[in-house]
């Protein structure tokens, strides 16, 4: 396929996945069109499947990657390059701006990291964390063309993180690591799959405000667990629906009260607004 044909395929793909999200973000669409997906995966042939695993095939044709499909990175661990429309929706919600600092946790082989690096530009920074050493090394090679990006072959849980405008976590947590919350700059944004019980959960978007952390549960998701971010609840609040959550609090700064929707040792979720 010619370079012109490849660009046309990526532009079509970018427009289609953005339309699927319902988000209108020209900058995010342009970034998806600019980054060749095949250059940020494991080597072909690729095993691809649609959400739910209903359609699956093995292919070495890069054109097949420019659909709203997942690509297997490590079948033994259930690690995939996730659904493009979901990540486009997440990145649109975060709206990375030129010059901002991003912490990306669970980067796989680096595809969505490259898109984040494109969006923050040469004056921005991306700190990318991948606990799987082999994938981290692969991502480091893939992202060598992005001097604004540093790959850490380490967990993003329990780590001393840099101050960040954006934290994008691509593995499910029952509760956020307190270091994620503390690393957010004023007006900083955190997004992660909140799976407070076994199975599917919801996307939680957290924004640091002057007087706390505003939280917005959005659409349903299902991710592999984030190692180290699986605390068990310390209290049960059976009368509250987690969908009522509007804020997240550090327990040492503000003890849980009657508005709690879920309580863990170090953090808790509340129905009150910030």
Describe the structure.
The protein has 274 residues and is of the alpha/beta class. Helix content is 24%, strand content 28%. The chain is built from 6 helices and 14 strands. The strands form 2 sheets. A 10-stranded mixed beta sheet has the order 7-6-5-8-9-10-11-12-14-13. Helix 1 (3-21) packs antiparallel against helix 2, helix 1 crosses helix 3 and helix 2 packs across helix 4.
Which features would summarize this protein structure in a list?
single chain; 274 residues; alpha/beta; ten-stranded mixed sheet; four-stranded antiparallel sheet; 28% strand
How are the SSEs placed, and which strands pair?
Elements: H1 3-21, H2 26-34, E1 46-49, E2 56-59, E3 70-74, E4 79-81, H3 84-94, E5 101-105, H4 111-120, E6 125-129, H5 133-142, E7 149-152, E8 164-169, H6 178-183, E9 184-194, E10 201-209, E11 212-221, E12 247-250, E13 260-263, E14 267-270
Parallel strand pairs: 5-6, 5-8, 6-7, 8-9
Antiparallel strand pairs: 1-2, 1-3, 3-4, 9-10, 10-11, 11-12, 12-14, 13-14
Helix pairs in contact: 1-2, 1-3, 2-4
Major sheet size, sense and barrel closure: 10 strands, mixed
User: How do the SSEs run, as a string of H and E?
Assistant: HHEEEEHEHEHEEHEEEEEE
Give the tally of β-strands: 14
Q: Strand-residue fraction?
A: 25-35%
- Identify the strand order in the major beta sheet: 7-6-5-8-9-10-11-12-14-13
Q: Structural class of the helices, strands and pairings?
A: alpha/beta
Q: In terms of per-residue confidence, which ranges show pLDDT below 50 for 5 or more consecutive residues?
A: none
Tally of helical runs: 6
């Amino acid at each position: 396929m010619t370079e012109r044909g490849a660009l046309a395929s990526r532009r079509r793909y970018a427009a289609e996945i953005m339309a699927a999200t319902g988000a209108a973000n020209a900058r995010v669409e342009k970034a998806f069109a600019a980054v060749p997906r095949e250059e940020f995966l494991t080597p072909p042939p690729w095993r691809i499947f649609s959400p739910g695993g209903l359609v699956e095939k093995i292919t070495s044709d890069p054109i097949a990657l420019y659909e709203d499909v997942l690509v297997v990175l490590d079948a033994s661990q259930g690690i995939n390059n996730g659904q493009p429309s979901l990540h486009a929706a997440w990145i649109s919600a975060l709206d990375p701006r030129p010059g901002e600092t991003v912490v990306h946790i669970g980067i796989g082989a680096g595809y969505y990291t490259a898109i984040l690096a494109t969006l923050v530009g040469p004056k921005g920074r991306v700190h990318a964390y991948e606990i799987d050493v082999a994938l981290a090394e692969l991502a480091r090679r893939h992202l060598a063309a992005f001097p604004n990006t540093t790959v850490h072959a380490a967990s993003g849980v329990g780590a001393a993180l840099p101050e960040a405008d954006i934290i994008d976590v691509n593995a499910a947590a029952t509760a956020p690591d307190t270091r994620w919350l503390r690393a957010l700059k004023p007006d900083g944004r955190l997004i992660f799959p909140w799976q407070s019980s076994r199975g599917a959960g919801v996307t939680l978007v957290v924004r640091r405000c002057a007087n706390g952390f505003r939280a917005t549960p959005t659409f349903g998701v299902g991710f592999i667990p984030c190692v180290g971010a699986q605390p068990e609840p310390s209290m049960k609040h059976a009368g509250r629906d987690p969908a009522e959550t509007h804020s997240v609090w550090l327990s040492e700064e503000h003890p849980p009260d009657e508005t709690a929707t879920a309580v863990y040792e170090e953090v808790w979720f509340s129905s009150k607004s910030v």
